[in-house]
Records
---
Amino acid sequence: MKPGDEFFDNPAWLSGIDWKEQLAGHFETAGNMLGATRFPFSDNAEDRILKEIAVEMGRENTFSLVDTAVYYGDREKETDPYFDGAGPLRKGCTGCAGCMTGCRENAKNTLDKNYLWFAEKLGTMIFPETKAYKIENTEGIYRVHTKKTGRNGVTGLFEARGLIVSAGTTGTLELLLKQKFYYKTLTNLPDPIGTNVRTNSQSISGLVEADRKLNNGVAITSIFSPEPGSHIEMVKFNDLSGAITHIGGFSANHPNPKKRAGYVIAGSLRHPFRMLKLLFSFRWGKRSIVMLMMQTHDSAMKMELKRGLFGTRLRFDRNSGKVPAFIPVGQKVLHQYAEKVNGTPLNSLTESLFNMSTTAHIIGGCPMGKTGSEGAVDGNFRVHGYDNMYVLDSSVIPCNPGVNPSLTILALSEYALSKIPQKTAL
Ligand SMILES: Cc1cc2nc3c(=O)[nH]c(=O)nc-3n(C[C@H](O)[C@H](O)[C@H](O)COP(=O)(O)OP(=O)(O)OC[C@H]3O[C@@H](n4cnc5c(N)ncnc54)[C@H](O)[C@@H]3O)c2cc1C
Ligand code: SF4
């Protein structure tokens, strides 16, 4: 999803650039590459209920079906619907709702069906299951040391004049912080690396045991904004899925963290069999949904390297800030929804027992800044302190988009790559 204006207006962006305008064309390119298509069916039971709640909250105008990276065409005959025959063959979506655990029907537009497909076609070599662990820079040449994942991983060494780090927020932060503080190979890396890590101000809840089927169509089909700066979506899973519900316990609808924890513990003691059923039953997919609450509100934490029992690893600095673990308006929608389908509302156990946020949208950690003391990367996502080194992934999203982040990551990457001059042929 493309974020709204609050995202582009946030002061975390480098000043002096109209980011909304600059990125507009890149959002479009990224959307085209992903085959972004509005979910075409408007009569799903679960979407109708979400819309009903939007109406009851006076927010009907914010309800919509979502854009999805899915092909909805012919389910029998394979075709390349996006790239005039230059792309891979695809088959239409069957609406099994299994997108989160991988599409078996060749309908979901994952990166190997677009960006990576063309990269390989144009001669890029891709080395799967290969982890970079050490980076050196000698006289402008980057030397990247790698290990194959798994036991007795074979090591490798890659050399290049330019480097793009794209290991996702936690992967990138661990890699960069280790070069600065552990291997001490890139000591000029900027100090702000690891700051401004965000969760999209997300909280994850859900409901099970509904009185009807709630997993029609693809995994995410609709969205609405229950209050300015907030969005709520339902995530659905295939009939045979259920693992996600194991992160949840009885819903504790109270802003006080101690009371929430007490309520969950007391509820579990009062109803032990019900709690065990919630934790250990499988195949919840059909009559369950997970609710994603996402907010543009500013909240951030810091991540740093810490030594522990299992070696030097990335950890949150607990004193560095707070991200929300309880969002009242999200709870309101959850309970309203559960009532309408006679379901059991759940909250993530980390949120209700430990007051710790749960997120699928970890972003930030490489903030933007004009200099290395203000940020990790400049306005073109070049790392301060080193030549020809970029970070292009979720860690450079400067603030919470309040919607799912993948399209934004691609738009920022498209923007950064458009600023690198084309190589001329020798
Ligand atoms: C369950 C779930 C569902 C989601 N659903 C959606 C959705 O519907 N829509 C949406 O927009 N977003 C969704 N997200 C969020 C989205 O997946 C992420 O925000 C996005 O994938 C982040 O992209 P990235 O390129 O930063 O990192 P990633 O996609 O995590 O890619 C980083 C890659 O780098 C690799 N890596 C890490 N460290 C190293 C290393 N040292 N060396 C080499 N490789 C390394 C990782 O293995 C990984 O393959 C979801 C997230 C989760 C967890
Ligand atoms: S619902 Fe998702 S997993 Fe199922 S066919 Fe469609 S894209 Fe694939």
---
Amino acid sequence: MDSKLTRSDSSLNALNGYAKRRDGYALMRDCNASARLTAQHYLWKDLLGYLVHPDIPTRSADLKVADVATGNGIWLHDLASHAIPSAEFHGFDISLDQVGHRSWLPANIHMHTWNVFEEPPPQFCQYFDIVHVRLITVVIKNNDPKPVLANLTKLLKPGGFLQWDEVDTISCFVKAVPGGSAEKLDQLNSQLKGRDTWKYQMANIMRQNQYSEVSLFNYEYDLSMARFWNDIYVSTWKEFAKNVLKTPEQSNELEIEAMAEVREGASIMTPKLVWVAKKHT
Ligand SMILES: C[S@@+](CC[C@H](N)C(=O)[O-])C[C@H]1O[C@@H](n2cnc3c(N)ncnc32)[C@H](O)[C@@H]1O
């Protein structure tokens, strides 16, 4: 495969090819990938200042929360550990390879295997007060979030809330100190960038698909946090490069050169998007 592939062109096709061969996931589920999810969770929490947006009610004694594409379940664990004992927390993912053993899960957390493109399990239709999903850009097919949104909506009770957290894969950019060079980091970042224009239409898509009170919140980290986030995105790229690009020598060289620029003062800067929407009653 051509080492100059970017995610915005041919590598998306490579990604789709990969999807057909495996379960559709372009990143990894090994210990490094899981550790990255854990680390980035705390960076997200620090940046947003919440797990569940304050506009979403969470105080009901029989609160039921779903976290779809839960990964290693770190968001759900964090939320459940601060919740009233009667609340229920359900994680769903196409693979539970990253989740702790079921016998060690807290009593209020339940994990389920579910492909978000399939009908939700009937017992969970209209079951949840809150459905949360974070970082499923690589899961969305054909730049169209509607099939996923439709299935997430089925999980929600009328009047329930959807919170969807994403990275802005179009507006992400590389910042360097004045006079610094970031050519290689820019090249690396261009392989992660997408044409996920659905994110710019998402609020309207939600309004047209059973939601009211739709809000989009934007977040950007400042330069004092840039290195922490940069290393998350270089790690994400390494998973993508290994799984999809499959050009180990070129990728290794690019990583070494890009990280040299990082040490001299350069960083991938990736804004965050959070939609909060209420399902029609
Ligand atoms: C980048 S991880 C995000 C994990 C978690 N939401 C977080 O923020 O820590 C994306 C997750 O989507 C899951 N996934 C991929 N394809 C899926 C599908 N078709 N249905 C459900 N989950 C899927 C992957 O297994 C992975 O755990």
